[in-house]
Write a structure and sequence with these properties.
This protein is α+β, with helices and mostly antiparallel strands. The chain is 57% helix and 8% strand. It has a domain of 179 residues. Strands 1-2-3-4 form a four-stranded antiparallel β-sheet, covered by helices on one side. The radius of gyration is 33 Å and the shape is rod-shaped. It is a multi-pass membrane protein. Belongs to the synaptophysin/synaptobrevin family.
Length: 256
């Protein structure tokens, strides 16, 4: 008896895996993957820039990492002398933290929705509250992705402008021109740029899932049920025996 019950329970769970054959479930898997890629690349944007000063042994350097608080990223000589910081205002820290918050929460929400689709499928189908919550949360987080990705794109632009060679020369106070302080090592912004692309890709994924989630709500189902169903006209088969040629009889004309 227990073996039969276990087989039935396994069959019940595995039957719900069919949701991944639907766009609603498949998109949730992509949302989990690309949310992880978004915050992983955004957090892994550590880099540095150097300038040569007074010879091969003298180097001006500055480095930065998440959360990219450039107002605390010092510009230093190789002997440890602090010349200044990369920025005093326009710090890209807030958009970086907001983008990370959006990414992590999106991953957790997508995991929660996926768990509900698989293990609570009957409850999701029979309770109108679950699809409605699913739709509104998806709608809100679509806006979060658009706002977070746009803000983070501007933040990456600020990071690149505040960490370029000209800004470091100006803020160091000892490099009036590129002749005295020629360019050294170039910073790597690849992860930051890729994270912005992942952010907008996540926005597209969440925007696309809105329609498939909306189809599960009572708003869509009630609207579909209220629409009159138009039946296609039925045309008889010309070659069927029921199609008999009609005979016409002409009444005689009486001449008076």
């Amino acid at each position: 008896m227990q073996a039969v019950q276990s087989k039935l329970s396994v069959h019940a769970v595995t039957s719900y895996l069919g949701v991944f054959k639907e766009p609603r479930g498949l998109i949730r898997l992509f949302q989990i993957i690309f949310a992880i890629l978004a915050f992983a690349t955004a957090c892994n944007g550590r880099s540095s820039t150097t300038l040569d000063y007074g010879g091969k042994d003298d180097v001006i350097a500055s480095s930065w990492s998440y959360p990219y608080r450039l107002s605390r990223s010092a510009i230093v000589l190789n002997n440890g002398t602090i010349l200044g910081t990369l920025s005093t205002s326009n710090d890209p820290k807030p958009p970086a933290e907001f983008f990370l918050f959006t990414s992590v929460m999106a991953m957790l929400l997508a995991l929660t929705f996926t768990f509900t689709y698989v293990f609570l499928n009957s409850l999701y189908r029979n309770n109108d509250l679950f699809p409605t919550l699913d739709f509104f949360i998806t709608f809100i987080w679509t806006i979060f992705w658009l706002a977070g990705s746009s803000a983070w794109a501007q933040g990456v632009t600020n990071i690149r402008s505040l960490t370029d060679f000209d800004n470091i020369r100006q803020r160091s106070g000892i490099c009036p021109s590129s002749t005295i302080c020629p360019d050294g090592s170039v910073a790597n912004y690849a992860n930051l740029i890729v994270s912005v692309l992942f952010g907008f890709l996540n926005f597209v994924l969440w925007l696309g899932s809105l329609w498939f989630v909306f189809k599960e709500t009572r708003f869509f189902k009630s609207h579909t049920m209220q629409q009159p169903q138009v039946q296609a006209p039925v045309y008889p088969d010309i070659g069927s025996p029921s199609m008999q040629p009609q005979s016409y009889t002409q009444s005689p004309v009486v001449m008076t």
